[in-house]
Amino acid sequence: NVLYNLYKVGILKVIFPELTLLERVGAEPQRFHHLNGLDHSFEALRCLERILLLKSPIWQDISEKLTFYLNHIIGGGRKNIQLLKLATLLHDVGKPITMKFDSNKISYLNHDHEGAIIVEKIARRMRLSKSEIKELKHLVKNHMQPIFIPIENPEAHILKFLSKTYPYTVNITLLSLADRLSSRGQKITLSYILERYRLYKKIIKTALYYEPPKRLPLNGKEIMNLLNLEPGPAVGIALKMLKGAMIRGEVKDEEDAKAFLLEKFNNLKIKK
């Protein structure tokens, strides 16, 4: 209500001009969104607030751990929960510049990636810390990803998602859940919402109990020798691939790590 009132008197346009552009993104009740882009953003934040009350029995077994996570200080003296709310409000700011009309349908291809670029500019304007900017970008860039995790046999997909998004997985999933709950077009059914709710809880629980590897089996120098690499971005890519493989359980020791990188990295067209 406060944000809506700020919008009505024109103050929100001064603070977040990129957000108020979403009023141009029309509702599509026959598909997913029953509200225009700006009202959807407000509604997503309302849904998030209701989720974070943790009143639903579905959160009972992880409520304490989730509350601890949400109250964790990121940077600048602010908490995870505060950055999550900001990301939820701004999650669709990439839509106005990616909106395209085709065969009576509207698409917003890559609005998540464009949105991440925009929120970085907003965050710098707000003078957020480097760690806050990094997380905010990750939340907006990846808020669509949980949608693609299947309901049936999701375990391997959850681990893959975790390998790409940890340590931001919990906040990304909560943002995505709020986004789903605030979309009530004709293609969004009650059974779909219930299935997603249960799945997203499973993702969040997996992330909350996940313990990242204390160290990788290979360091940067060892990877350079193994793959005949010069110092540069390629080494970082290899390290990131190795970390993801460990999270997914594909790599357990040094021997696994070498075999994985020799097979997977050399198949990539990366300038060495």
Topology:
Layout: H1 2-8, H2 11-15, H3 17-20, H4 37-51, H5 63-70, E1 73-75, E2 78-79, H6 80-90, H7 95-98, E3 100-102, E4 105-107, H8 111-125, H9 130-141, H10 155-165, H11 169-181, H12 190-209, H13 220-227, H14 233-247, H15 254-264
Antiparallel strand pairs: 1-2, 3-4
Order of helices and strands: HHHHHEEHHEEHHHHHHHH
What would you report as the Rg, rounded to the nearest angstrom? 20 Å
Poorly predicted ranges? none
Taken from the alpha-carbon principal axes, the silhouette is globular
Biggest beta sheet attributes: 2 strands, antiparallel
Total tally of structural domains: 2
If strands are numbered along the chain, what order do they take across the biggest sheet?
1-2
What's the architecture of the largest domain in CATH terms? Orthogonal Bundle
Helix content: 55-70%
Integer average pLDDT: 90
CATH class of the largest domain: Mainly Alpha
Briefly note the structural class of the backbone: mainly alpha
| Cα distance spanning the termini | 53 Å
Q: Count of helices?
A: 15
Share of residues in strands: under 5%
CATH fold title of the largest domain? Hypothetical protein af1432
The number of strands is 4
GO molecular function, one term: nucleotide binding
Protein name: HD domain-containing protein
Domain HD/PDEase: 33-193
InterPro entries: HD/PDEase_dom, HD_domain, HDIG_dom, tRNA_CCA-adding_enzyme
Question: Keywords, please?
Answer:
HD domain-containing protein; two-stranded antiparallel sheet; nucleotide-binding; 2 domains; Hypothetical protein af1432; nucleotide binding; 4 strands; HD/PDEase_dom
